[in-house]
């Protein structure tokens, strides 16, 4: 019998501390959870900062100590990890959870690393019963569950699923933490040195090995979209989220069809102002990618960006928000829905999503594998997130 329902790993980090704070405020009193990290004193200090009772147990575990990872996994039903970059620090923990048949969730957006975990562990996780669920934060819960939500609504109205869904980020206010920056720069470093990583990153179905569909490579330019009558720009996390949604379709036996198409963009407005904004965002993303892809300029760039452990202030987190528009179509039939929430999407909102995902895993059963939020928790997680304040609404 396990000792805990959930272990939050990485509590002394920026994101981990926010998840621990959420657990202190909102976790059911009868849910047994513990905090973990490699430095006990730092973990206890973080718990004190968020008002955790001294009775919250602390587990010492280090990503470089395989024995400690297995010991932590054996002690719980679910490991919730905030320790990134995951390509650098996360592989041993996933392996330990798979070996022990323990569920796992994280907030990674590192597509190349997720593909490694799929290749190494999906079949073994199916055998052990471990549900390994990546991308349980702003990337990619709104995308993955938003698509699931609008598809179910479309079927209720029209009697079939939509063959095409488009995600449009209408508005978002938030900041970056040093952990996110470190993950992005680590990804660019690996991509610059490894041709296979570059191949995975540009493949629209890279998280669905062997799958094919109508979607092509990510579009990086400004475009006018007749569906919404506005100019659009690439969405920074679209290259992650789209692959997660396509994997959900793949894992769910192509429930939305083998020709299902999914894409993500940012809305920038109508007319000349919208066109200029879309062009500026597109150029900025291309420029950042170019600078980050080259070693010397990447190192220079890192000096001006937040360091690990740094991030938005509590006031900035509280003032953040986001809203996403979904447009589902099949033939002449169309349905729109929105997903929205309060707090900084990458941090306050992500802490909510990740903590609620961990609690959903702890309180439910399911088949093992390297899964997605939609394919592992689906409607149950949507209902839980709605109860926690997220908006899923048919328009």
Automatic annotation (TrEMBL):
Residues 6-133 form the Saccharopine dehydrogenase NADP binding domain. InterPro entries: NAD(P)-bd_dom_sf (IPR036291), Saccharopine_DH-like_oxidrdct (IPR051276), Sacchrp_dh_NADP-bd (IPR005097). Gene3D superfamilies: NAD(P)-binding Rossmann-like Domain (3.40.50.720). One of its GO terms (cellular component) is plasma membrane. SUPFAM superfamilies: NAD(P)-binding Rossmann-fold domains. Pfam families: Sacchrp_dh_NADP. GO terms for biological process: glycolipid biosynthetic process. This is Saccharopine dehydrogenase. It comes from Microvenator marinus.
């Amino acid at each position: 019998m396990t000792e805990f329902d959930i272990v939050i790993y990485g509590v002394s980090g920026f994101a981990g501390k926010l998840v621990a704070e959420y657990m202190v405020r909102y976790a059911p009193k009868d849910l047994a959870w513990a905090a973990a990290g490699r430095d006990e004193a730092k973990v206890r200090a973080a718990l004190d900062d968020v008002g955790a009772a001294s009775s919250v147990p602390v587990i010492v575990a280090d990503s470089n100590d395989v024995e400690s990872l297995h010991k932590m996994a054996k002690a719980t039903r679910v490991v919730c990890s905030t320790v990134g970059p995951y390509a650098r620090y996360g592989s041993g923990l996933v392996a330990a959870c798979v070996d022990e048949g323990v569920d796992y969730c994280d907030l990674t957006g590192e597509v190349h690393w997720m593909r490694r975990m799929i290749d190494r562990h999906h079949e073994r996780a199916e055998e052990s019963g471990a549900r390994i669920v990546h991308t349980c934060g702003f990337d990619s819960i709104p995308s993955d569950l938003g698509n699931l939500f609008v598809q179910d609504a479309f079927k209720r109205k029209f009697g079939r699923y939509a063959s095409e869904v488009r995600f449009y980020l209408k508005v978002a206010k938030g900041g970056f933490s040093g952990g996110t920056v470190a993950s992005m720069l680590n990804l660019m470093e690996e991509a610059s040195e490894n041709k296979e990583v570059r191949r995975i990153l540009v493949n629209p179905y890279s998280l669905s090995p062997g799958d094919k569909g109508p979607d092509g490579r990510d579009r990086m330019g400004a475009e006018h979209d007749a569906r919404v009558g506005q100019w659009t720009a690439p969405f920074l996390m679209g290259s992650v989220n789209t692959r997660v949604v396509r994997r959900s379709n793949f894992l769910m036996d192509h429930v939305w069809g083998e020709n299902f198409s999914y894409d993500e963009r940012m809305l920038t407005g109508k007319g000349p102002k919208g066109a200029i904004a879309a062009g500026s965002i597109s150029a900025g993303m291309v420029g950042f990618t170019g600078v980050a892809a080259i070693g010397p300029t990447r190192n220079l760039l890192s000096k001006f960006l937040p360091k690990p452990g740094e991030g938005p202030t509590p006031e900035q987190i509280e003032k953040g928000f986001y809203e996403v528009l979904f447009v589902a179509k099949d033939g002449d039939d169309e349905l729109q829905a929105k997903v929205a929430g309060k707090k900084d999407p990458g941090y306050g909102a992500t802490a909510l999503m990740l903590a609620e995902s961990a609690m959903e895993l702890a309180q439910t059963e399911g088949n093992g594998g390297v899964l997605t939020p939609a394919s592992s928790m689906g409607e149950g997680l949507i209902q839980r997130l709605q109860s926690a304040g997220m908006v899923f609404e048919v328009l």
